[in-house]
Specification:
The structure is a single chain. With 485 residues, the chain is mainly beta. The protein is built from 2 helices and 35 strands. The strands form 6 sheets. The protein has an 18-stranded mixed sheet, with no helix packed on it. It has an 8-stranded parallel sheet with strand order 7-9-11-13-15-17-19-21, with no helix packed on it. Strand 2 and strand 3 (78-82) form a beta hairpin. The longest helix has 26 residues, at 2-27. It is elongated and about 95 Å long.
């Protein structure tokens, strides 16, 4: 019986020891060399103590695995280092002890203030899977050694001052997110074999100086959800892709380039698309908007400022997807697309610089979600139905440069910006009450007569080219001041 009791006590003691050992391993007590590397890194960094609250707390008296911004594995090696949003202005070069932390899997230096070249020893951190250097102030070229980081899952170098060509990422087979937007990168993007990056979900190369043609393999990446190449210098045609694999593509942004030719039909087969922005290119040819009937998830469509001739008439207007943003400026439209009458989710509508004549239909004022309406630079002559514009969400109304005539439409008091300039309006009613919230209205280049309410917070654009004769009254009992323009 005594032996049995001693046996149980021994087992209990052994279990306690093993449990304590397990707790030590899980908590990951910092190894001495890891702590030394981190303290060396801190001592070399040039940072503002009052704005770098993570770094100021690092000291040798505490376990480095408990420091803010530091994560360790069970063996005490530093695996994650997050120094984002610290006021660091320098101190990382090729001699930095940062590159001795070779178990690092995630490094975040976003929103710092380095104003230095990109170090060329990042290849020493071969276990990195997540690297975020966005808004960090780095300059110069992205060194080729970055291509040795074959374990990368996400890479964000956006909003720096990087220049030169984009290195090849063909060997980063696990890459899902690539963001190089808002830099000064140039050259083509053909150095990467995009077809080999089958896990890519997001590519963002916006706002650079990239040029050349777009490979069709970009649109064949099976997992791709977002492709943003706006504001570059890409040229050439978008060719039909023989094997459309990007059924998951939800956002395609190619605006602000020099792409030409007709729009390829594969774009209208991307059935998961929510955002399609192709404006400000040189696309040409006829296009029937009935093609977007297949894009049942589409919420944003922008085809403005190309050389397209768009036909917006459909035999089945009720079947169109419910769009929130529609921009068809300078698309040679002859009339209002008939499917718009059923677009009750529409918030932004831009049909400016087209060839639409006749009346502004009264159903346009029934689109209760509408916040921005631009019908400028058309040939519209009047409004169908009541003149009172009472959309509660409408904040911007632009009707300039048409042939609108008669009495000036009384806008909703919720409007912030109204432009009625360069029309043929001839009379005005006193539609500005003390409850009006708008602050900017343009009436120049009309033939207006009448009076309107003059409030200090309203800027009347009356004094540019045109003929108006308006009376501005401070209140109902005040003498009227005549304004000739």
């Amino acid at each position: 019986m005594m032996l049995s009791l001693f046996t149980w006590l021994f087992i209990l003691l052994l279990a306690t020891i093993l449990f304590e050992i397990n707790v030590v391993l899980v908590s990951g007590h910092c190894l001495s060399d890891q702590q030394w590397f981190l303290l060396q890194l801190k001592n070399r960094l040039d940072f503002n103590s009052s704005s770098s609250l993570k770094l100021v707390k690092w000291n040798q008296t505490t376990d480095c695995c408990t420091w803010e911004g530091v994560t360790c594995d069970a063996g005490g090696y530093v695996t994650d280092l997050d120094l984002s949003n610290q006021w660091i202005v320098g101190g990382i070069d090729n001699s930095s002890s940062l590159f001795n932390l070779q178990h690092l899997q995630s490094l975040n230096l976003a929103n710092t203030h380095f104003n230095s070249d990109f170090p060329s020893r990042f290849d020493k951190l071969s276990n990195l899977s997540h690297l975020n250097l966005s808004h960090a102030g780095f300059i110069g070229q992205i060194p080729e050694v970055i291509t040795n980081l074959t374990q990368l899952v996400s890479l964000d170098f956006s909003s720096n001052n990087f220049s030169g060509p984009i290195p090849s990422f063909s060997f980063a087979k696990n890459l899902t997110h690539l963001n190089l937007a808002h830099n000064q990168l140039n050259g083509s993007i053909l150095s990467t074999d995009w077809s080999s990056l089958s896990k890519l979900e997001c590519i963002d190369l916006r706002d650079n100086a990239l040029r050349g043609t777009l490979p069709t393999t970009l649109f064949e990446i099976p997992s791709l959800q977002s492709l943003a190449l706006s504001e570059n210098q890409f040229t050439g045609e978008l060719h039909e892709t023989p094997e459309l694999a990007s059924f998951t593509l939800q956002s395609l942004e190619l605006d602000g380039n020099m792409l030409n030719g007709s729009l390829p039909m594969f774009v209208f087969g991307l059935q998961s698309l929510k955002v399609l922005i192709l404006s400000s290119n040189n696309f040409s040819g006829p296009l029937n908007l009935s093609l977007i009937l297949n894009l049942t998830n589409l919420s944003t469509l922008d085809l403005s400022f190309n050389s397209l001739s768009i036909n917006g008439t459909s035999s089945d207007p009720a079947s169109f997807p419910l769009i929130q943003t529609l921009k068809l400026a300078s698309c040679k439209l002859k009339r209002f697309p008939n499917f718009l009458e059923k677009q009750f989710n529409l918030s932004i509508l831009d049909l400016s610089a087209n060839q639409i004549d006749g009346e502004i239909p009264d159903w346009i004022w029934t689109l209760q979600s509408l916040s921005y309406l631009n019908l400028s630079y058309n040939f519209l002559v009047n409004l169908q139905g009541p003149l009172q514009v009472q959309l509660s969400h409408l904040s911007v109304l632009d009707l300039r440069n048409n042939k609108l005539q008669g009495q000036l439409p009384a806008p909703s008091p919720h409007l912030a910006y109204v432009d009625y300039s360069s029309n043929k309006f001839s009379s005005i009613i006193q539609f500005y009450s003390s409850s009006s919230t708008f602050s900017f209205i343009l009436l120049s280049n009309n033939n207006l007569q009448g009076s309107c309410w003059d409030r200090p917070n309203i800027l009347f654009g009356l004094h540019t080219v045109g003929l108006n004769s308006l009376a501005l009254a401070q209140d109902e009992r005040a003498p009227v001041q005549q304004v000739q323009t």
